[in-house]
Amino acid sequence: MSDNLLREIEEAGHAMGEVRRMVARRVIGQEQVVDLALAAILSGGHGLLVGAPGLAKTLLVETLGTVLGLSANRVQFTPDLMPSDILGAEVLESTPDGGRAFRFIEGPIFTQLLMADEINRAGPRTQSALLQAMQEGHVSVAGERRDLAQPFHVLATQNPIEQEGTYPLPEAQLDRFLFQIDVDYPERDVERAVLLATTGTEMEEISTVLDAPKLIAMQQTLRAMPVGEQVVEAILDLVRAARPGTDEAGAELSEAVAWGPGPRAAQALMLGVRARALLDERLAPDLDDVAALARPALTHRMALGFAARAEGVSLGALIDGLVEQRLGTQAAA
């Protein structure tokens, strides 16, 4: 590793430490959720936050936009939301010389950090419009390509309880999310701190730590971070063992799982382990990073078969078993 790269990794780690401390002023508890969201952004990807209402998902995205110095927009997804409500549309206007011309009005997707609230409530057409933006970094309106701001990240929320009137995300769109970030209920002492902090007259002040150019530079530094051969092989072993019907997968998994993760899962882990190491101010990832990111990277890229769901098989438990089998008990812990 060159001295320049070493210095860049150390500086990025220190900066992200300040980002975490600033976010913690406003988002109490939920350290793992914050770290996964930051890891997704550092990796240049998108995150899907899954949790019940009232668990600070919206607050987290707003806080990240401020602390990271990114322009941020929020879209509340509803069944009647149209693609033009996100992308924008061309309107016919009168010109000063008496003629008429079309003018494009940008939609909320033209931002750097987009919060897609309750994303599974929008119809397939609207979800498809967002899919192109997430994958390609540009949209097509009236046959014309329009590039999005850089960096561009989507943090979407999904309520796992109230599924009536929703449209399940297609596998292709789920695969575009780097991580699925499960947001659980807080512990009692954390909830007490939230209660006291949010029902008073003042909220903690937060300030901007980074800006877009610095974040892009850190994303490039992350991709240059070295990854040991042992970690690379562990990622490949884990992802390939999660695919039913392959030589690497066991009989139990092949019977339970209907479809498994593709190459994007390995790419997500490869970037994610670097981001986790950087957040911990380490110079390179290890097997513990692979184990910690197995569920976030694989859960939304796998699906249980009908029989397994009827028998109450847990997808999370299957992934944990793979981690223990492929990486060893120490790493899984």
TrEMBL record:
Pfam families: AAA_3, AAA_lid_2. Gene3D superfamilies: Magnesium chelatase subunit I, C-Terminal domain, P-loop containing nucleotide triphosphate hydrolases. Residues 43-187 form the AAA+ ATPase domain. Transmembrane segments: none annotated. GO terms for molecular function: ATP binding; ATP hydrolysis activity. PANTHER family: MAGNESIUM-CHELATASE SUBUNIT CHLD, MOXR FAMILY PROTEIN. This is MoxR family ATPase. It comes from Pontivivens ytuae.
